């Protein structure tokens, strides 16, 4: 549900109160920017251009473009429902608890949601087309998202091909390709980005990993962008070995023959020694990851809500830069909390509106990224909804156990971690304290 002033709008029935709403819209605190109420051209297009069209454009992953009034009008009521329930834009974080400052936050403000809701209630008028803002530059679906910030990648690798039939089951590709000859000496990686081949491969690759030994050269999920390591941080890779591709494909309504995945890698300059080293995202589980149920494994009764928790003690200090929840179709909530060695407990982040289609990585702003001392316990809590109230539950009569398929379950979080020596932890903590003091002074 909406934050802010949900009671107000949800109590009014549009049919009965439309005139009243129009009247209210005339008051300045309802956010009207022109006489006569909210219009697409003046008020709504700027919100969509800023928050929706990067995906909802002909080359994007959104199912329909939302560029013009003609594009948007038929979807008005669906747009209202999706933004009011915070399903769109995809950002499924609980806004009432935990850290709220993220680099990639694409959520709408309460005010923007209210504007869209009341515009649709008022009949979704177009208004004066000369008031339309300029369309932003739309991302080219074929390019690398990180290239805008980092320039072209140092190298790109391709997975073996796989055909994804229109209405088949989900499929996995697990295969090796040689890495020999790509680099000629050990190098530090600065960033990676994995994606399906444009255009249809982008839509069928639900999530995937490509690793070189223990080093990830790309971890992807729908809605997740590439991984850029923090400043002065790198991941060391060797010039030999094999890439292991582990790709999970979901069918769409058309055949996608011989599709593949590609990963782009940006390196630090030759000879560069980073201050901090990382392995990128690391998996912290709440389940035991087994097949049939034993203690710690997943076992969800029919028609039930089930909670599972798992803990991990950090035997080294760490800087946590992101988290990415992972459950399947019964997943509803997942959170990650820190229990510090002094007993203090802090919610680091919680998703309360999980949608299995999306694999979003929540990337902390630098000045709030959790600095975790050695001995911190990470507590992961998963809530599954195996009732008929879960709109994507394939069958609430089933017992559900661990498994790869979307109809089975999992329970883990991918966490962006940079492990630190005690000395590095002290340095970063002192820096953080200084920054916070400066901000408080202002
Ligand atoms: C990161 C990409 C992305 C962004 C940003 C995004 N969408 Fe979407 N949208 C999608 C995808 C993919 C789907 C289909 C899957 C789903 O429904 O989750 C979708 C589905 C929808 C639907 C349902 C369509 C249907 O046929 O029922 C609506 C409505 C919608 N989006 C509106 C919006 C609006 C409005 C915004 C901005 C306020 C927005 N979206 C932002 C990618 C995006």
Helix share of residues? 10-25%
Give the biggest sheet. 6 strands, mixed
Tell me the distance between the termini: 35 Å
Secondary-structure arrangement, i.e. CATH architecture of the largest domain: Sandwich
Unreliable stretches, pLDDT < 50, 5 or more residues? 1-34
Assess the beta-strand content as a share of residues. 25-35%
Structural class: alpha+beta
The 3D shape can be described as: globular
Task: Give the number of helices.
Answer: 9
Task: Please name the CATH topology of the largest domain.
Answer: Jelly Rolls
Could you tell me the number of beta strands? 23
As for the number of domains, it is 3
| CATH C-level of the largest domain | Mainly Beta
Radius of gyration in whole Å, from Cα? 23 Å
Identify the bound ligands.
Answer: heme C
Mean pLDDT reading: 89
Give a description of the structure:
The chain is of the alpha+beta class. It has three domains: 6-131, no CATH class; 147-273, Sandwich (Jelly Rolls); 281-427, Jelly Rolls (Sandwich). It has nine helices and 23 strands. It has helices spanning 6-11, 14-25, 40-51, 69-72, 76-84, 110-121, 147-150, 200-204, 422-441, and strands at 155-158, 162-164, 171-178, 187-196, 205-212, 215-221, 227-228, 233-237, 242-249, 256-259, 261-267, 276-277, 281-285, 299-300, 305-313, 317-326, 331-339, 345-351, 362-363, 371-372, 377-385, 400-401, 412-420. The strands form six sheets. Strands 1, 4, 7, 8, 11 and 12 form a six-stranded mixed sheet that branches. Residues 1-34 have low confidence and may be disordered. Bound molecules: heme C.
